[in-house]
Amino acid sequence: MNGLSFVQNRPIDIIGIGRLCVDLNANEIHRPMEETKTFTKYVGGSPANITIGSSRLGLNAGFIGKVSNDQMGRFITNYLNENEIDTSNVSVDQTGAVTGLAFTEILSPEDCSILMYRDNVADLTLSTDDVSEDYIKQAKVLLVSGTALAASPSREAVFLALEYARKHHVTVIFDVDYRPYTWNSSNETAVYYSLAAEKCDVIIGTREEFDLMEQFIKDYESDDQKTAQRWFDYNAKIVVIKHGSEGSIAYTADGLSHRGGIFKSKVLKTFGAGDSYASAFIYGLLQGWDIPRAMEFGSASASIVISKHSCSDAMPTVDEINEFMKTAEKVHL
Amino acid sequence: MNGLSFVQNRPIDIIGIGRLCVDLNANEIHRPMEETKTFTKYVGGSPANITIGSSRLGLNAGFIGKVSNDQMGRFITNYLNENEIDTSNVSVDQTGAVTGLAFTEILSPEDCSILMYRDNVADLTLSTDDVSEDYIKQAKVLLVSGTALAASPSREAVFLALEYARKHHVTVIFDVDYRPYTWNSSNETAVYYSLAAEKCDVIIGTREEFDLMEQFIKDYESDDQKTAQRWFDYNAKIVVIKHGSEGSIAYTADGLSHRGGIFKSKVLKTFGAGDSYASAFIYGLLQGWDIPRAMEFGSASASIVISKHSCSDAMPTVDEINEFMKTAEKVHL
Amino acid sequence: MNGLSFVQNRPIDIIGIGRLCVDLNANEIHRPMEETKTFTKYVGGSPANITIGSSRLGLNAGFIGKVSNDQMGRFITNYLNENEIDTSNVSVDQTGAVTGLAFTEILSPEDCSILMYRDNVADLTLSTDDVSEDYIKQAKVLLVSGTALAASPSREAVFLALEYARKHHVTVIFDVDYRPYTWNSSNETAVYYSLAAEKCDVIIGTREEFDLMEQFIKDYESDDQKTAQRWFDYNAKIVVIKHGSEGSIAYTADGLSHRGGIFKSKVLKTFGAGDSYASAFIYGLLQGWDIPRAMEFGSASASIVISKHSCSDAMPTVDEINEFMKTAEKVHL
Amino acid sequence: MNGLSFVQNRPIDIIGIGRLCVDLNANEIHRPMEETKTFTKYVGGSPANITIGSSRLGLNAGFIGKVSNDQMGRFITNYLNENEIDTSNVSVDQTGAVTGLAFTEILSPEDCSILMYRDNVADLTLSTDDVSEDYIKQAKVLLVSGTALAASPSREAVFLALEYARKHHVTVIFDVDYRPYTWNSSNETAVYYSLAAEKCDVIIGTREEFDLMEQFIKDYESDDQKTAQRWFDYNAKIVVIKHGSEGSIAYTADGLSHRGGIFKSKVLKTFGAGDSYASAFIYGLLQGWDIPRAMEFGSASASIVISKHSCSDAMPTVDEINEFMKTAEKVHL
Asked: What is the pTM of this model?
């Protein structure tokens, strides 16, 4: 029991929409990228990672997105197929756009950074023509991540997907995933994030991301309960607010709040923590688990991924998570 | 009684937001513009015209907009001031934008066209920074016209104004006013028009404009009752659908529909009919008149304006409209 | 004898290339444009004015340019035709560009200003495809004005025209005509103006315009003789440097410099002085007059135009200039 | 004796100007890039490669360019410094531009392709402010490659560098290096390539590149001798026209043409052949060698580079080239 009711008897558990890109992870770590010689290529992008994670956990997954008409784009589609994600709604850009890139630099477990290539990217050329009502209505969950709202025509495609999802009672999960470099201004971000969040059932973001969305409120206090209530007044049932190293809190429309446990881990890098958490948390919600259990499952998944070199490729199975939880040491916040 | 309840005891009756531009009307009419020698300059733009019309009718009016930092911009602000419209929230662009222009060509009463200058226009540089919650909450009505949704940052400014208006129970009237040349695609238009219309109390548009907004609906039928119901399901109380020469029908959330009378008129040009109609119709709503009476008052105002050379400058007073209605011949549709 | 030798037996005396636009001149003068009510429409743009002036003086004239596909564009083409200018190489833009506008404000004879509309203008969409070698080789003179170098593809079209002109020994006259608002930076202007000026036989500009072109020279002194010599070292035979109210000086490759007389005039506005001067000066050069005589003829033409309301429409005939010179009072500088 | 006379007693032998970028070469070759897992990072870009090659051969080299303000940019500058290239005129972009990338795919020695990232690249933000007359006048040779002409403000920077070079008798070598994806149209390319080539002493390009530059010539024949003569009529002394597998021919202003020998090589990939050829050919010219000897030296350098994994990092020393030439088998065309 977690406050959500998913429409049953639908062939697809979860459809991700939005960013599909390529991570180029430094092979030589603990040094600045200037001194890195080689990189390994992985599929990346928050909704891609979450969808891959969901599929690894056994969910029937699909994706609505757009890839570049080149080797990078074909690599992405191939990888999604290999991970048993339905790519019938992944279309190929015809405008000469490229695949977004993220070069990662791992100076230390605490000091990781990303060099992004986000000019003229294929994922933001997704358009309303690429969004199928017939496809969306076959799903229990639509997963939206915020970066897809950063530019036209992708922004309009997401709003149309949200309309179809609401019409057909598809549960909408919004992972805020704010990336400043893809936006013109934080004002613009706040406006479109709010318009989208109004229509979502579950909203997952950091405290800073919620503050960003609420920047137009006068005499604003950064207060979790007020934030959660503001979105419950629209359509939200669960609002998850992440407080960094202090852990996350899930607020529910019944007025309660929940924390999940956290596990000790041998951290290689911090990338991918949020995406792996989200995929396992969503898995738990779909199983009907109560929120603390789903959160703990998410934490375990995150602990596994941050100990490995990639994000997408490191996403664990249910067995791996269960195995990890048997032996991992819990941290009490 | 018209289904609307305005918050009383507010100092401003109506605030317009959006386009402020200049009309250059051909002085030599009944010929192609190639042969026109001289033009007369007027303030124009749908929300400007409606606000000017409202002020002429005695309403306390204000405007949220942006004008170019040149002679054209100063002309507009001066004209609004002369018409007793509060311009404290009309700001001046600092980016080098120009005032939008509309050159009109009047070949015959039935054959009028407009040559628009809409590149780099100041009205679309209105931003969230220019929208004041304190100002909006002083008004009974916020009047939005659709062109302001055509581009950033004006689009975000309008969505923020809508949020403030809803928060403070300001009645929102949406005049669709679709101008294709300001948009990238009809898909984009449909998405943002719908997001705005969801938040409005009164929606006024042509049958074609509603069809445009509903283009993503499968197995769509162009049906007034269905259209009205779709918006009642959000926040609308009145939906006015214009059918050209067949007149307009106002649908109300109680399931009724209404027509107002139409008057015979000596037509000089068709420009300005919609704006003068809207200002007088809104005036009637604010007086608490029933809908047919407000519509008839709107029709009378339109009949006056289309017999004159300008739009804005020809907006009538209450006395002029009453005088006209005493003698004008009604047309039965 | 003026240092130029034109190829004889060519059917066209002069071809202008570049800007074709519309002037909207305030009818109510001696007041700020905010208070102007009506405007009169004329063809404008420096090369257009010079070419119209040349045709009025009896030269066989043609034009290479691009006009908008609307009433303004057709007005321009019609006006050129009425003035017996060959428009076979004036093409019609198909990209939705508009005609550039210049609203004039005449506060006093000394205080005139222009409000320009130069976004998305048709004249700058002229491309290499619109430039015909066969056409250019029929002319004695190609007249280039600098604004056409401000943006692609017009800039490339002008460079191609220059190449054809040099190949076929067409005398090239370059009127610098610097308009800052059409350029991204003065650095960019200097580079392309210099590349063009290198290929020209006659260069006409203000002292400030030559300083702009020479801004990259170290330890620069603003010195007419050095400026003239710099261009003689390329291809120039005549360099005319305008010193505002102190008059113009024409430098010739033989080391001489020349001044023409100036006439008293009843000045209405200063617009059009340079263009009318240029057209009559070029006329004189083509007649084989010596330079002082051509300059004086130019001055007389300018004196006539600045006493009238328009630029293009006020361009005088040879008889009008001669008549004026009989009675006008000469000013000695 | 090769027709060139370099100004002696200058501290710098050669300054490259233009593109500095990063190559990401597939480590797993003979497969499509979709299946490549890892990439190795090298400095790339035609003028960068040629300048690195020149420095390896013992020339005093410098560079005028702009790099991104991130790890990729610092990697490039570091690498140039390590290769003893003066980077005092390599500036750092402050606009948020990125380093251009070239992902290489090596399917077979004959079938290599490149996936380029050229949006918003730092090298094209080089501006006239970054070009120092004092620096250029210290050099014997300025090496220009055509890609730097593709966009503003880099294009203007190159034209200014050309002006300084001519003023101070710096020998200008133009490597055409046409990359269609950086240009808007081939017309635009032809115009700016021609304006640059007019001012150069040595022009190196493929037959197709010269055809591109000469596309506006009526009744055009693709003929080496005519092409060479056209540029001799401006400032060229040597024109090298590459005919792919049929080898290159160098034309000189004295009417002669020359071929250099070609060597058998174990080809890994074709990338870098032109750049290594150019650096060794220029080295030879600077030594005062006759043209066939300089060409043969160039061929030997190219044979070495195409047998290795990188372009820049594989550039040979004089000893390596001499060693190679002792044992390599010559091919007779």
From this structure: 0.95
In CATH, what number is assigned to the domain containing residue D274? 3.40.1190.20
In angstroms, the separation between the Cα of residue D217 and the nearest Cα of chain C is: 9
**β-bridge mates for residue A26, sequence order:** A39
Q: With 90 as the cut, is the pLDDT of residue A1 above it?
A: no
Residue A296 lies in a domain: yes
Chains C and D touch (3+ CB pairs under 8 A): yes
Q: Quick check: is A251 in a domain?
A: yes
Angle between helices D46-56 and D71-82 (to 10 degrees): 30
Q: What's the one-letter identity of residue A291?
A: I
pLDDT for B111 beyond 90: no
Determine whether the interchain pair C38/B41 forms a contact, defined as Cβ–Cβ distance below 8 Å.
Answer: yes
By Cβ distance, the residue of A39, A78, A115 closest to D34 is A78
Estimate to the nearest angstrom the gap between the alpha carbon of C113 and the chain centroid.
Answer: 18
Would you state the structure tokens that stand for residue A301, as one six-digit string? 């998944």
Whether B2 maps to a domain, the answer reads no
In tens, the pLDDT along B5-14 reads: 999 999 999 9
Count, residues in chain A: 333
E strands along chain C, which residues?
Answer: 12-17, 21-26, 38-44, 61-67, 85-92, 101-108, 111-117, 139-145, 171-175, 202-206, 238-242, 248-252, 257-258, 262-263, 330-331
- How many Cβ pairs closer than 8 A exist between chain A and B? 48
A113 within domain boundaries: no
Mean predicted confidence (pLDDT) in B85-101: 98
DSSP helix/strand/coil, A333: coil
Contact D147, C87 (CB under 8 A): no
Is B289 a residue whose pLDDT tops 80? yes
* Structural domain total, chain A: 1
| Single-letter amino acid code for the residue at C228 | A
- Separation of alpha carbons A247 and B296, rounded Å: 62
Model ipTM over 0.90: yes
Chains that touch A (3 or more CB pairs under 8 A): B, D
Judge if the upstream peptide bond of residue A153 is cis by omega within 30 degrees of 0.
yes
Distance (Å, whole) CA A186 – CA A178: 10
Chain A CB contacts of D115 below 8 Å = 70-72
Strands C202-206 and C171-175: parallel
Distance from C-alpha of A194 to C-alpha of B217, rounded to nearest angstrom: 24
The two structure tokens encoding residue A327: 């032996």
CB C125 within 8 A of CB C95: yes
- Interchain contact, D33 vs A75, CB within 8 Å: yes
- CA B317 – CA B323 distance, rounded (Å): 10
- Residue-wise pLDDT for A22-47, tens only, equals 999 999 988 999 999 999 999 999 99
pLDDT recorded at residue A332? 67
Q: What is the CA radius of gyration of chain A?
A: 19
Residues A71 and D105: beta-carbon distance below 8 Å: yes
Ranges in chain D, pLDDT < 50: none
C-alpha neighbours within 13 Å on the C-beta side of residue A242: 20
Residue among A14, A55, A47 at smallest CA distance from A139: A14
Q: CB distance C98–B105 less than 8 Å?
A: no
Burial label for B111, CB within 10 Å (0-12, 13-18, 19+), is: exposed
**Cα distance from N-terminal residue to C-terminal residue, chain B:** 24
Q: B323: buried, middle or exposed (CB in 10 Å: 19+, 13-18, 0-12)? A: middle
Q: C315: burial class by Cβ within 10 Å (0-12, 13-18, 19+)?
A: buried
CA–CA gap between residue A13 and residue D332 (Å, rounded):
67
Please indicate if any CB of chain A lies within 8 Å of the CB of B188: yes
pLDDT tens string A233-242: 999 999 999 9
Range of the domain at C209: 12-19+46-91+123-331
